[in-house]
Structure formats: structure tokens, C-alpha cells
Amino acid sequence: MILLDSNIIIYLRDPEWGEKIAGKLHDERLATCNVVIAEVLGYKHLEAADAQFFERLFASMKNHSFNDMVVKRVIELRKTETIQLPDAIIAATAITNDLTLWTHNTEDFDNIPGLRFVDPLSAN
Predict the structure, then answer these.
(1) Which of 26, 41, 107, 124 is the most core-located residue (most Cβ within 10 A)?
(2) Residue 31 forms beta bridges with which residues?
(3) CA separation (Å) from 39 to 9, 13, 19, 46?
(4) Residue 66's closest CA among 35, 23, 26, 43?
(5) What is the rounded average pLDDT of the residues 43-70?
(6) For residue 124, is it within any domain?
(7) Helix boundaries (H) for the chain
(8) Confidence of residue 124 (pLDDT cuts 50, 70, 90)
(9) Containing domain of residue 25, as a range?
(10) What's the CATH code of the domain at 89?
(11) Do 53 and 15 touch, CB atoms closer than 8 A?
(12) How confident is the model at residue 123 (pLDDT cuts 50, 70, 90)?
């Protein structure tokens, strides 16, 4: 199962980038978490049509909650790594739930032990 980072969710709205990402998904199941939903839907200048698109997309995905196991992993990550809180929550959610994170901001997740991540927009 794949956890999509906020930037990948946003790129899905763009026809060219969305097609490139979708072409790599195959039959993978998609996941999200509350911080990704908050980042995307909480954007101040989000237009109504875009909000509807993202709400439908999130409704089709499994949402992994910010539970005690994720909180524990976030604390461990923040004590040992230099990582922003939202990114720590996303990384901890992926690790705790055995998900592969898809992100275009790979530098945010470098050196996070136990995290599997892929940049679906890379040339590879």
C-alpha cells in the first residue's frame, strides 16, 4: 500500500503530472493520513473545484489515523532526526503501517530509519 504525500496529491490534479503518477500506480491501494488531508484541504487559496476533487480522492483512500503507535514513532524520530513535525507524522505513519511513501520532496525524508519512499516524478 502506498501513502501519498501532500505534494503528490496536489500533482494528481494536474493532467500531465497526474497521468505520470497514475501510470506508475498499477493496482496499488492508496492511503492517506490526517496531516496530509489537513495540508491539502487547509490551503488558504484552494478553489472549490479543487477542494471537491481532493475530497473525493481522500474518500477513496484508506486513512491511517494519528494513533498512539504513530505518536510514539514521531517522538522517536524527532529526538534523533532533524525533521519538521508534519513530515515526522507522515514518516511515522508510513513506518508504523508498513506503507511506502510517495513524495516529490525526498530530501525531507532522507536518513529516516525504516522508511521506504519513492519519488514517482523522478526520471527513473
Answers:
(1) 41
(2) 3, 62
(3) 10, 15, 22, 11
(4) 35
(5) 96
(6) no
(7) 6-12, 15-25, 34-41, 48-59, 68-80, 85-96
(8) low
(9) 2-118
(10) 3.40.50.1010
(11) no
(12) low
